[in-house]
Design goal:
Oligomer: single chain
Largest sheet: 18 strands, parallel
Number of strands: 29
Distance between the termini: 78 Å
Number of helices: 1
Structural class: mainly beta
Shape: elongated
Radius of gyration: 24 Å
Length: about 290
Amino acid sequence: MNEKKNLHITGKQNILGGNYKEVRISGCGTIQGPLTAEELKVSDLARFRYSVSASQLKVNGKVTIDDQLNIGEAKVSGLLTVKREIQCMGDFVVTGQVKSYRHVKTQGLKVSGMITSLEGIEAKTLNVSGKLKANQLKVDDAVVSGMVVIAEAISAKELEINGMVKVQAIESEVLTVKGRLVCGGSINAEKVEIEAKSGSSFEEIGATEVKIQPIGTQHGMMSLLTGLGRLFEGPTLVKGNLIEADSIYVENARIKKICGHDIVIGPNCNIDEIEYSGTLTIDETSTVKRQTKR
């Protein structure tokens, strides 16, 4: 059995691809055929015309792949562009910039740089302290302390937002918003908890339990933005059209309609209409225009 060779490109070279143990590109390389490697490192400039498969990928330079990328694990501190799908069996760490024209599927995704998918991103675990943009996002557990922009929907078991998320719809078992959430459509979850002075907004929430209340100290950018908002505009209200849940507590909120069993309206709220079937408590500093017991 032939032992796999190593490939080192230090100048400007064109090769046909192949199966290698280690590939290092510190010059300018163009690979004209499918490439398979145990370890692929690019510290300068590389163009792959066909698919790339590697157990380990490290990008410190600029890489363009015209086909699919299959990897065991990856660390990208440079610039990576993939014209088709990215599949990663392990952890995908992005401190630079990654752009995929199709889906990104990975076990674990950690982003302190920027990642963009023109289709969707799927991951078991997600941690974003940088920026993530995609058409759709599907995760098990996600923590966002940076910025996430999703054109359509987020599906997650547990989603914690400490930074900023802009999305059209959310499906989640547990949603915790300590930063700011702008949801143009519906939120469906078992449990929803939103920081009362975050300035978050949504169209409607359907859940078992909803709480809009102070839930912790904000950090970093969100703390600065919230502080400036309070300085120039006063407390930043949470705004929504509809909340439907069994148990509901809200404060510092402007909601058009609330429907539930047991409802508590805390301080600094403006509610147009409430429908309840159990108990209703309203703080004296809040305004409710209409209330109906079903």
